[in-house]
Amino acid sequence: MAEIALLYFLARLPLFDSICISFSTIPTGGFTPTTESIGHYINAYPLAQYIIMSFMFLAGMSFILHYQFLRGNWKSIKGEEFRLYLIILAVAISLLIASQGLSSYREGIFQAISIMTTTGFVTADFGSWHSGARIVLLVLMFIGACGGSTGGAIKVIRILTLIKHTRVMMRKAISPKAVIPVKLNQKPFPEGIIRDIISFLFLYIVVAVVASVILGLLGLDLETSISGVAATLGNVGPGLGGVGPTESYASLPGAAKVILIMCMWLGRLELFTVIMIFSPRFWKG
User: Fold this and answer.
1) Residue 172 in contact with residue 180, Cβ under 8 Å?
2) For 201-259, what is each residue's pLDDT tens digit?
3) Stretch 90-109: mean pLDDT
4) Residue 1 structural domain
5) Which of 70, 126, 154, 180 is most buried, with most CB under 10 Å away?
6) What is the pLDDT of residue 285?
7) 11 — phi, psi (to 5°)?
8) How many distinct structural domains can be found in the chain?
9) CA distance linking residue 29 with residue 120, whole number of Å
């Protein structure tokens, strides 16, 4: 309701558009009433872009943080996942602005937030940007938003856990007899959950590689194959190349669409849920 009110009363968007965009921002859906996405509004309603950016950022946060804020617990903002979320966004925005120039700072900020939160709103044709900027966006498609948010992809909490686990393993390589637990927010992280996260990351990469290879064999170019898989597996929406912000998935071969549909299904249900269905043990109870 807050976003609807701000878009309608402050940014002066039509009420229908305000409702549709708001309902697509918080769930990180990315659909708009126009074919130009948010780019349709930025000239006539410049303030709308900043309002949507703010709510995309909030949607990419863990909803546990939202709950803590509502309870007045502002110390929760010091959480390590949220800090890494801010760092990744800040680095990505800086790289995008550096590659595209200061004049495109709004597009850089908007697209970094939109892609990382897997919302998929578009205000510029980032498919024609510098190759370095496109790589940054591709990395954000794989990382995704915070755990406990509506975003897709791998999620920041898993990246953070992997970084911490790697750091501990490096320290143990120097001191093999040392007992060094992995800690998150100063609390020990269970080994079982760490193993689950490593398994998930491995499976995510395997699915992405296999799907990309299949798309390549179907005749898609490298950029379209990899970004198409990243965008669908992470539920981002627009990719690069043939599935970029000014293109669509409509022109892809039927077999390629089937592969990407499977990627969307796997990504939204986070792999294990779907793969278990095909296990005989699941059906035997």
Assistant:
1) yes
2) 999 999 999 999 999 999 999 999 999 999 999 999 999 999 999 888 999 999 999 99
3) 91
4) 1-58
5) 126
6) 62
7) -85, -15
8) 1
9) 7
